[in-house]
Design goal:
Strand order of the largest sheet: 5-4-3-8-7-6
Order of helices and strands: HHHEEHEEEHHHEEEH
CATH architecture of the largest domain: 2-Layer Sandwich
CATH class of the largest domain: Alpha Beta
CATH topology of the largest domain: Beta-Lactamase
Largest sheet: 6 strands, antiparallel
Distance between the termini: 55 Å
Radius of gyration: 21 Å
Number of helices: 8
Length: 269
C-alpha cells in the first residue's frame, strides 16, 4: 500500500472518529468544544478543529456560534437511508424479537452481518431486573466471537468461511471455531457461554434474505444460571423458528417462494 493511500485512509478514519466522539457527547449538557473532541480522539486541537470544519462543510457536523460543535442535520439523511436499506428486515425482526423475549423471558436481539463482523441493531430487553443489555449498538463485533457470530459463520458458504478462517492464523482458535460451526450446523442453532461477557449465555440462529444470502442473526441472551445447558435445545428451537419466520416474512414481501413457519407460542420457561 503506498504512503498517499495510507495517509488518505487514516484521514478518513480520524474524521469518522470525530463523528463518533460527537455522538458519544450528544447527551452532555452543552455541545463540546474542539479541545474536548481533540482529547476524546487523541488529536491536537488544531487538527481536530480542521476535521470539524471540514465535516461542518458537508453538513455532518454543526458549528455553534460559541465555538462548540455537534452532529449536523445531514446525519438524519444517513439514518433515513439506513432505515430504507434495512427497513423490511428491521420491521419484521422487531416482531420476532418481541415474541422471543416474551416466550423465553430473556433479552432478544438482531445482529446485522457487516462483512466479517456483526453489529447489534435492535434489541428487546428482558423484564428481569438482572438481564443482558447490549451497550455496543452499531459497533462491529468480530465473527469469531459469540453465538450470533458462529450462527452466521455456520450459515455462509463453506469456501467463503474457510478463506476467512485461513486468514486468521490461529490453529488452536480455529479448531474451536470449526467445532462450534459443526455443532451449529448439526443442531440448527449456535450456543455460547461466557464467550464475550463472563456469566452470560447466548443462543442464536442465522437469518437469510430472499436470495438466500446470510444477512443477520437473531439471539436470546441472559445470565448463565437462567439459561443452563439443559435449556439450550428448547431455546435453540425457539430462536431457529423465529429466524425462519423472519425469512418467510421477507420472502412474502418480495414474492419469493419460501415456507411459512410460525414461532412457537408456547412458553419455554
Amino acid at each position: 500500500m503506498n504512503a498517499a493511500r495510507l495517509t488518505g485512509q487514516q484521514s478518513v478514519k480520524r474524521a469518522i472518529d470525530v463523528l463518533f466522539a460527537l455522538e458519544a457527547m450528544a447527551t452532555s449538557p452543552s455541545p463540546p468544544r474542539a479541545s474536548q473532541v481533540a482529547a476524546a480522539v487523541d488529536l491536537n486541537r488544531t487538527t481536530a478543529w480542521r476535521y470539524l470544519q471540514t465535516l461542518a462543510e458537508t453538513g455532518l457536523v454543526r458549528e455553534f456560534g460559541d465555538g462548540r460543535f455537534g452532529l449536523g442535520g445531514r446525519t438524519l439523511s444517513l439514518a433515513e437511508a439506513y432505515t430504507r436499506q434495512w427497513g423490511d428486515l428491521d420491521a419484521v425482526a422487531s416482531v420476532a424479537l418481541v415474541r422471543l423475549r416474551d416466550t423465553t423471558g430473556e433479552t432478544a436481539a438482531l445482529h446485522l452481518r457487516q462483512g466479517w463482523s456483526r453489529v447489534v441493531v435492535r434489541q428487546v430487553e428482558s423484564y428481569h431486573e438482572l438481564h443482558r443489555t447490549y451497550r455496543e449498538l452499531g459497533q462491529p463485533i468480530s465473527l469469531l466471537t459469540g453465538a450470533p457470530s458462529v450462527a452466521i459463520l455456520a450459515a455462509i458458504d463453506e469456501a467463503e468461511r474457510t478463506a476467512f478462517l485461513d486468514a486468521q492464523g490461529s490453529p488452536d482458535g480455529r479448531r474451536a471455531i470449526e467445532q462450534a460451526v459443526a455443532d451449529t450446523i448439526a443442531a440448527g442453532y449456535a450456543h455460547s457461554r461466557g464467550a464475550r461477557v463472563p456469566g452470560v449465555a447466548s443462543v442464536a440462529a442465522a437469518v437469510r434474505d430472499e436470495r438466500g444470502q446470510v444477512v443477520a442473526a437473531v439471539n436470546v441472551t441472559g445470565p448463565e444460571d437462567r439459561l443452563p445447558e439443559s435449556l439450550a435445545a428448547d431455546l435453540g428451537a425457539e430462536v431457529a423458528a423465529a429466524a425462519a419466520w423472519v425469512e418467510a416474512r421477507l420472502a412474502d414481501r418480495t414474492g419469493a417462494p419460501t415456507p411459512d413457519p410460525v414461532p412457537n407460542e408456547g412458553a419455554t420457561r
